[in-house]
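Handout for the seminar on molecular recognition.
Each group receives one record of this type.
Step one: identify the two inputs.
Step two: read the structure output and locate the region that could contact cytidine-5'-triphosphate.
Step three: write two sentences on what you found, then compare them with the reference statements printed after the record.
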Amino acid sequence: MTAKRILLGMTGGVAAYKGAELTRLFTGEGADVQVVMTQAACAFITPVTMQALSGKPVHTDLWDARIHNNMAHIELSRDRDAILVAPASADFLAKLAHGLADDLLSTLCLARECPLLVAPAMNRQMWESPATQRNVAQLRADGIIVLGPASGDQACGEVGMGRMLEPADLCEDVLVRLHQPKVLAGRRVLLTAGPTFEALDAVRGVTNRSSGKMGFAVARAALEAGAEVTVVHGPTTAAAPRGARLVAVESAREMFEAVQANVAPCDLFIAVAAVADYRPAQSHEHKLKRSDRAMTIELTPNPDILGHVAALKNGPFCVGFAAESRDLDGYAQAKRARKGIPLLAANLVQGTIGSDENELVLFDDAGRHALPRASKLEQARLLVAHIARLLPDRARSGTRPRRRR
Ligand code: CTP
């Protein structure tokens, strides 16, 4: 991903302290952050802190002689991919809605060529006031992206709408929106992710060590690429991507039902879940009690979710995953042929389950494509780019890509 260049505008509000963490998160993701602060913002957090965290001098003044032509209000945004105003106070939203330009940040916003995003932060009464709501509606109509606010405890002691989104959420929202190219724009994607849990009794069951991280990484990469994403996921503590529709299930049969209920409108089905192939033939309502005798648990096969979707008439383009412990190529090729799918992403489980990194090998009609070892998100981005190259053009093939026969 090319490094994003963000102009972070900060206005006066207690949430200005979150701007410090936001800057750290952006720079941690490789983004270049140029901070511009209003006078009111400087009352809440100092430019010194923001300069230290962004690694760049902070601009606060419309008449800043450091800019060679003294046109900071134009120059500072010209090399930027976006302006994000966070926190955006009620006063600043009102200025934006009316095109006022009486300080460096408001002038920059008016003179920009890049997208403008705002993260409102204010007391709930200020947020709910007809004037603010009118201004926000105007900003949306003008093509300005409004991120949040969230509801919750406020600095003033009240509770309600108006909290600025948390820095991690803002960082994710902004980077997903700025990601280019949007190779899945207009596509609907259904994914499965995580393990399944097959109950044996009230507390025990059959499951596996899948963390759900790879499935969620593929979902995020699809969101970045512009897709509308639904994820059917088993029990997991991994952080789900923002912006995806989540359907939480427990067992393989529940996952199968959720996939059947959601697959119809989708162009693309990516089965990342580590679905338990078998479940206990009998699931006991109450906890099984210990005895000194040996116990045999009979297992019965679960439905093959990917196999079912791949066999649908006019079904979506299907991508499978395979985690193998040996003979990666042999098992992966055989699995792709058996499931009748155009693309299979395979990896060796040693060193990847639960890890933040992966090393996928993609198998398709053209052969074998090894992806370089990288974070699961980077691997997911490469996978999504590969899928987009294989997806038939809808203009030629009708409303949905045809699956491989
Ligand atoms: N899969 C599925 N439903 C199942 C089992 C697997 O949808 N009941 C999907 C997985 O999500 C994955 C692919 O099928 O995309 C391959 O999963 P895997 O467990 O490796 O395949 P199996 O066919 O179960 O083969 P194996 O004998 O290796 O377990």
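Reference statements: The radius of gyration is 25 Å. Residues 192, 252, 271, 273, 275, 277, 302, 304-306, 320-323, 335 surround cytidine-5'-triphosphate (CB under 6 Å).
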